[in-house]
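In response to the reviewer comment on reproducibility (Comment 2.3), we provide here a single inverse folding case reported in full, input and output, so that an independent group could reproduce the run without further information from us. The structure tokens appear first.
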């Protein structure tokens, strides 16, 4: 079904490019190779080649009509590198867009991505927006949600049965010299899990109904604030004994004070109810809806630039995951620009405290993931040449007590990259990385990348 939708969209959209006055094609080809030596598994060699291709065709008979396509395909030349087979591909987006001359009106049709307070939705359908009088604006979308095959056979059949359509809308009001207030609604699917015609009906509810409120404020030059709250208003199956079903699916707030021209402070707070959040998160079909518990994170950072070439940042973040425990991470990082030598240096040190991470295991009920992290990098760019070197080292304090670390206290990785801009529309680059980790005892990866972009304009075009 999914493949037929791809072909139908391409068959309908690609011929439209023939009527364009301006066409831009951009392509990136990546050839990777790496070897793994994982404890308990056979050694493996992977060599996937991935092609990303995009097309923007404008002025399709009228200046207001344009076509946009982007997709990718991968094939493995050695061992299988990903789930689902040695070849894969997808159409990320492909749509026709019409821009109206008045009121910032716009309409899109095809495979589109819609952004709202309740999340980011990918669907095959229609999106439209327009400004209204008095500072109001409205946008809406509707169609069939794009669902990835990341579940087992029965759950995959269930999720596609339940999520039979997707629709949403957002009404916003621009507050003069202050900011913007928005209200959103999302409806994702209408079929109940129990109605799926199978011998053993599923109990997981993948459908969603959510209401979101978002606020952006910048009342004065030295302060700005963003916030949003998403409410879960769906009729879910009965909760399990002891399970707390919060109606606030997600809330996130962030404020920044620009104290001086070279000094600023940022603070943020995030809370997510996983049962509802994964039903309304970014591209929700990618996530496991069976997650439970609440996640909260409080963070702050101070950035200071004593001279224009040097930027220093001190940051602190505390997270609590109801099911797994809590983590506190703090540290410093700096960036030094040396334009006379075409160099930029960077470095950071962070300490993470996570000594009571819960493990669902009767033998080891909790373990430590506390560690220190050091990172350093340098970039060089002059004319068509560019190069970079990036290294990171982790030191775990209780490696012997953590079964996930395989007794490995120190883990490290280093990545080197070089690039050459051979022409304005063509660039080649290559990366080589060496990693020494608990999961992959030793891993060497190489990547070659070719980026090509060209465009043409018919007579009368630019």
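Designed residues, in position order:
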């Amino acid at each position: 079904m999914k493949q037929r939708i791809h072909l139908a969209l391409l068959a309908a959209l690609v011929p439209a490019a023939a009527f364009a006055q301006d066409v831009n094609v951009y392509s990136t080809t990546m050839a990777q190779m790496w070897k793994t030596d994982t404890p308990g598994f056979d050694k493996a060699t992977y060599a996937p080649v991935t092609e990303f291709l995009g097309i923007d065709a404008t002025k399709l008979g009228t200046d207001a009509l344009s076509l946009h396509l982007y997709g990718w395909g991968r094939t493995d030349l050695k061992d299988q590198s990903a789930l689902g087979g040695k070849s894969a591909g997808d159409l990320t987006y492909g749509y026709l867009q019409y821009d109206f001359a008045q009121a910032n009106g716009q309409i899109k049709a095809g495979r589109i991505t819609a952004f709202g307070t309740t999340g980011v939705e990918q669907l095959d359908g229609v999106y439209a927006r327009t400004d209204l009088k008095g500072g109001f604006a409205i946008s809406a979308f509707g169609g069939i949600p794009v669902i990835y095959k990341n579940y087992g056979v029965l759950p995959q059949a269930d999720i596609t049965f339940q999520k039979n359509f997707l629709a949403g809308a957002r009404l916003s009001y621009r507050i003069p010299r202050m900011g913007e207030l928005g209200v959103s609604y999302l409806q994702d699917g209408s079929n109940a899990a129990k109605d799926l015609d199978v011998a053993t009906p599923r109990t997981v509810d993948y459908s969603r109904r959510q209401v979101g409120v978002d606020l952006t404020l910048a009342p004065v030059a030295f302060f700005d604030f963003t916030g949003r709250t998403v409410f879960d208003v769906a009729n879910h199956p009965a909760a399990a004994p002891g399970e707390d079903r919060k109606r606030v699916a997600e809330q996130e707030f962030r404020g920044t004070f620009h104290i001086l021209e070279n000094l600023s402070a940022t603070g943020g707070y995030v809370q997510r109810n996983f049962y509802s959040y994964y039903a309304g998160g970014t591209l929700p079909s990618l996530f496991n809806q069976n997650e439970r518990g609440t996640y909260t994170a409080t963070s702050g950072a101070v950035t200071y630039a004593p001279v224009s070439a040097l930027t220093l940042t001190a940051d602190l973040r505390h997270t609590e995951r109801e099911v797994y425990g809590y983590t506190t991470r703090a540290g410093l990082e700096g960036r030094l620009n040396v334009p006379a030598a075409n160099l930029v240096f960077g470095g950071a040190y962070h300490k993470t405290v996570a000594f009571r991470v819960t493990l669902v295991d009767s033998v080891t009920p909790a373990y430590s993931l506390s560690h220190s992290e050091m990172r350093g990098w340098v970039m060089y760019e002059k004319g068509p040449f560019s190069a970079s070197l990036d290294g990171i080292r982790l030191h775990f304090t209780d490696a012997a007590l953590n079964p996930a670390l395989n007794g490995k206290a120190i883990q490290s990785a280093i990545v080197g990259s070089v690039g050459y801009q051979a022409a304005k529309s063509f660039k080649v680059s290559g990366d080589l990385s060496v990693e020494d980790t608990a999961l992959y005892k030793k891993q060497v990866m190489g990547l070659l990348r070719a980026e090509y972009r060209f465009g043409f304009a018919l007579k009368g075009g630019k």
